[in-house]
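Dear all,

This email documents one entry for the complex benchmark we are building for the journal club exercise. For each entry we list the sequence lines for every component of the assembly. Then comes the predicted three-dimensional structure of the complex as a token string, followed by one or two observations. Please use this as the template for your own entries, and keep the labels exactly as they appear.
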Amino acid sequence: MSLSYLPQGMTRRHFIEHLAGASAMAVPAIAFAGALRANAEDLKKRHKAAIMLWMGGGPATIDIWDLKPGAPTAGPFQPIGTSGGEQICEHMPLVAKQMHHLAIVRSMSTREADHNRGRYYMHTGYVPNPNIEHPSYGSVVSHMLAEQTKQLKLEIPAFVAVGGGSVGPGFLGMTYAPFVVNSDGNVRNLKMDVAAARLSERMQMLASLEKSFVKQDRGQSAQDHANILEKTVALMTSKQMEAFKVNSESEAVRDRYGKSAFGRGCLMARRLVEQGVPFVEVDLGGWDTHSNNFKTLGDTKLPELDKAMSALVSDLDERKLLDYTAIIWMGEFGRTPRINGNSGRDHWARSWSVVLGGAGMKGGIAVGRTNADGTDVETEPYTSQDVMATVCKSLGISLETTFTSRNGRPMKIANGGKVIKELFA
Amino acid sequence: MLIVLLTCTSHATGRGAEAVGTSQSAATKKTTAANNPIPQVALVNEHIRQHWAANKLIPSGAATDGEWCRRAYLDVLGRIPRVEELKRFLDEPAHDRKTRLVNRLLGDDYVEEYARNWTTLWTNLLIGRSGGAERRGLVNREGLQQSLRRAFQRNMPYDRLAFELISAKGVSKPGEEGFNGFVNFLAGNLQENGVQATAKTSQIFLGLQIQCTQCHNHPFNDWKQNQFWEMNAFFRQTRPLRRFEKGRDVAAIELINQDFAGENNRPEEAVLFYELRNGLSKAAYPVFVDGAKLKSDSGYVQEVDRRTELAKLMIHSDYLAKAQVNRLWGHFLGYGFTKPVDDMGPHNPPSHPELLDTLAQEFKTRSYNQKELIRWILLSEPYGLSSKFNPKSRKDDPALGEKPMFSHFYLRQMRSEELYESLLVATEAQNTQTSYEQQEATKREWLDQFTLAFGTDDNEETTTFNGTIPQTLMMMNGDLINKATKIDKGSFLHRVASDSKLPNAAKINYLYLAALARKPTAQEITLANELLALRHGDPAAALQDVWWAVLNSNEFILNH
């Protein structure tokens, strides 16, 4: 019977009864917790975290961050000035005021223009390979920041994906899998139907079943199941689950982020980061604009993005969290400079943009340049690996880190990508 | 008093249950050896054994009969066996109980359940779990299911099924004149000149992932950009005509073929153009992936029905049988000969190339009879192995990226549909009150909580029923589990608890057989006894705790 299965908080008496023999050890542990708490308050202000704004479908970055007025590939949108040095789309007026915190990388050049492959590649830094599953951003970051998470006594998952599926933990294992939630903050089936004491008794029965099946040596998934059970019970009884409740924020705050699913997701991301969650991914889909690109962007996508993203950046800044929280805005690829017959743009990975900021990365700049019609990158091209390496550096994660996949192969963190130097100048 | 009863476990479950948990008898072993009387089974065993020898692997021992029975029900019917089904199997003579069970599972007794399961699998494969959910979408999920169900009920030969799906014409919605549910596969994939129809048809039926070559040639993929567009040319006559309801919602579509004028307006030689990476345009006409051209490139349907021609080329190609053998093998063994099963291009060589070729040839020779193919796999030696590792099979672990050698059965989690059906079976919830359609609708409503659509042009989606926290929360606290563990009058546990013919020990036994197809161990009995004491001797409440724990266990959710 593994003691860690016992729900926290509610079954202390039961727990201690079972521990009768070990009570001598329990007392110093409680004394130690007091000292740790003081430490944790201090740490909370400075802990590192990252928020990825995932633009599912592949956004037309040529219409958002790298406009080409006058070129045959230009759309109808006009560029506007920003608080940083560069211009962006007129439909992003609120983000424009936050651009001194953000950097546009305009020289992204990748090779994956299929959604599935592109999503995998941009999330992991590796192209899909039938023989190995690579860990995604959230898994890598939550794995590398595990010590910090422990000190913060985080009881909820260290990798939360709001409103989307993200990419899995690969060889890092189910412990680092994304916890997928809806942006309304209601986690399904959280409430248990039986009294805490009875749940704990059931858990003992279950733990025994789990353990004997794991012992039969049938493969990793038996152990994974046991681990997830443990995490689930911790979550069911944790006060930290409050962090998901975006509706407990004032009307004014919710208005600021916008009452869209993405707005709520961004607000939740801020709450989760405050709680000590090291990685949150918020999904905004609907960018696969093969037709009606400009109407879709101008009428719905960009206003929703503008409100939520600007609120997130400024709110983090006001709370002194932005210096420790990296922001990553990207999708699986960009879209064709050429406008197709349906006023749409198709998949295009050769020249596109991502946006980075926070956690010490320099804002107010544009890195790299595309040519006059946006069809090619004219400066040093950057890849998914490079973006990942840059984010890792901002979070203080060593780029010398090498993982060992389950079959013993060494895997360099961020696939050996190079840091985008301009962001740390 | 009750506690004493609980500790005594034998006698109660009937003769057959004695064999649960013991290993296979010598007679059963004999039938799985390389000299199996079914030549195709012998062939599979021979090939698999050659690879074991070459890789210095010693296979794990045979699975227990209980384990084997559980996996056969799960993999063929999509649910675990009922207690009486398990007992019947174990009561049969050891030397041919497996053959008899396979005959039953593929025979008349289970024709409806078989059809239901394979309809579910194929619906998910063809249109995904969220296909048909869009209010203004073109796909009618029920329509596709109805046609698939009829096909599986009569074991339609696989080449015929593929032909029907690729060449389908007609109306998407059941009950409408001209109804043909098969049109729903292509209906949702025809936007943007049928790019997705091209990609999915190649992937699902030919095991070829050519979609990444849509924009340019790829270094890691042998398919060329022209091949993608030449395949795409077959779909250019196809149109979904919308039929509206109340002026705005699409009530149904009719999938038709109409003349394709070509992008240069010369229908007698209807061409399409695609763009190279350097911006130049190139022309494409229908050419099958193996290089076969049509006798004419005319866009007039009267002269050439391009889609029907494609369907013919597909069912006469070697790809079709290979792709389906690979998929079915992967379904039953947990891994196909390639990973993923639908990417069989030259860049991704299979683990057992000769076996794949031979099985595909046999499948073709036996008129693409899917039940025959399933029979060969079920009765093969690798399918009958234990899922336990042994020191000499440890390196055979495809989860680590190794090529699968099938020296033991690979653990895998039940799919959400399998869990749902298994819980119904385990709690003996009879579905007789409602119609098939209502049952499916209730199930879908439950399944929807796990499906996340990415909203991209290829209709990709993912599931949170993937062994992570949301799934565990559902298993611990969800409605379905609450219902399964109810002890009200008329509930499953109430019936078991109040069965005066069953002593308490037999009741625990019964729960273990129902969920895990095995009897409880001595330690598990002891724990059950402790729970009974904690529940102040109330057997129903104690059974409830045991049942909850068993249903939440890894052993329950993992097909082993």
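Observations: Confidence is low (pLDDT under 50) at residues 1-32 of chain B. The first strand of chain B starts at residue 170 and ends at 171.
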